[in-house]
Amino acid sequence: MENLKAVSFDLRKDVIDIIMAGGGGHTGGDMSVLDILMELYYEQMHISPSNMDKPDRDRFVLSKGHSVEAYYAVLCARGFLELDTVKREFSKFNTAYIGHPNNKLPGIEMNSGSLGHGLPVCVGMALAGKLDKRDYRVYTVMGDGELAEGSVWEGVMSASHYKLDNLCAVVDRNCLQISGSTEDVMSHKRLKDRFESFDWHVRSVNGHDFKELKEAFEEAKTVKGVPTMIIANTIKGYGSPVMENKAVWHHKVPTQEEYAQIMADLAERKEAALHE
Question: 0.90 exceeded by the pTM?
Fold first, then answer.
């Protein structure tokens, strides 16, 4: 089996290259969410280029759609998209490779970017699966800043009311958003308790540890009668000290000097991962 940890640093290089080529992107959140996306697309979901139009495929919605560069990198690695095309077309005039997910592209279920929409839509997808007696599972990833949207909590209530045990949501808990710390903007104290109070099964994990992610997703598949929420504790800008835990990297393009240092840091971490 591939060393996903080592591969993750290669995909982070792809993310940086996409952002540099397009002249924009949400670098910090890309780096925090990428390992979650990898675990889903490499290990968990029944979805591939060969079955992406089949009714029994698993569904995924990137609710924090501004982190699309990480999504593109994973979709390229799994054969849905071509990396050279993404780099050439990203954020160019009249392109399909826009700065948020576009369901005109292979493998993307839903346009997203207006925060707070992913979970409610996934509630509908999961409920449809139940009504149609299909076995597919539905996944979504939200940002922690996104939890200030009221529609998230409407979705949380609906999912437990309809006992959607085929639904698994993830919070990318990197504790930063565009305007600073989530705890200063809209605090999330006792977040696990909040979701549990709405009758969700909840796991809190290290969002950069593939073993913990795998265990949480596998456990979610065994839970009956309630949906699952995974709180993935992550580091914004994960992969290089140049970016890590710095709110300014929510939406920032590296300078040439920063680019060189970030790439060197990612190469060093990949090497370390190969020898763990």
Answer: yes
